[in-house]
Amino acid sequence: MLTCMRFRLYPTAAQEVLLLEQCAHARYVWNLGLEQRLMWAGWKGPTPGFNAQAGQLAEARAVEPWLAAGSQTVQQQALRDLDQAWRQFFAGTHRRPTWRKAGQHEGLRIVGPQSVRVRQDNRARSSVLVPKIGWVSFKRSRALVDWKSYRITLDRAARWHIAFAVIPDPIPAPETGEVAGVDRGVTVAVALSTGEMTSPAGLSLKESERLLRLHRRLARARRGSKRRKEVKTLIGRLKAKDADRRKDWVEKTSTDLARRFDVIRVENLNVKAMTRSPRGTVEKPGRNVAQKTGLNRGILKSGWGLLVTRLEQKAPGRVEKVKAAYTSQTCNACKHIASESRQSQATFVCVSCGHRANADVNAARNIAAGHAVTARGDLRVLARSVKREPQHARLPKVA
Ligand SMILES: [Zn+2]
Asked: What is the pTM of this model?
């Protein structure tokens, strides 16, 4: 049920040079396209989309031999990826596309018919025909079926990978009629209405300490020195391990939920609004800013967006988005809404009936019940709760 099959890629020294060149082209085109969109003034008309930018790329290739020497497929795909990132940003599901940096974002993507040119070399090895580079070998640790595209990346630990995107087969519903509410928590990544709580493993305490030590060593290392490069690689390796574990958690959690529940309800929250700057929307700046920063980190690190995407792929038609307002302030036992019930990040104690629960689990139960809770004319409470919970994208409609 994997959606991404990732293998180690082993380019020859000559191929590595060519790959790095192609990655640089993709990055250059992406950054140029992004700059044009960001700098665009309204009076010039609509912001250039993919078609307009692809036209400009063709013109640039005609006058810049170094760009023309690279693969048009790779360069066009970078523009297509940018276009998608741009749309996702405006749809409110993703953050603003960022600049691609050398050494940090080394990658290229091949989509469609060009991506299926793969041959099996022997029991453990296959090769992929990369445009303008040739057959590049990769370690095929499991069978590869039904992919639509691939991405080649160089991580900060100096390892090349190829990741094939596979559309997963939907997981059949258990047909038990069971509904799960899923809340993204602050102290844990995900809380379920069943009372279960789960988080990706991340780095162990020992590994985190090691990362800290490496960062200190990096600060002391001379710029451009061999030692600095080595420390950077070690840091990259730890960070890659952390990212791998998080991805793994998303796959396992989404498969588990799709298998066990007929309907999975999630909050219809706006990730973009939630991760925006915490300044200016809170009562007690110092404390709340710290909390919000923690929340930001939690959301981004736990990969909530990715989890929902995978859920929708594995349980198509069985994922429901529920109105987010008040789920964390509503008592699941008596339905009383009061921000005072939320005593801390961790505990919910209802001021009306005394019901006590883990705050994230209480919220998950409200999500499972799918309450479309509306404020009943109490604008004072409304105004206050909006200030308290700046993560809500917009004011709930007053009935
Ligand atoms: Zn209550």
From this structure: 0.56
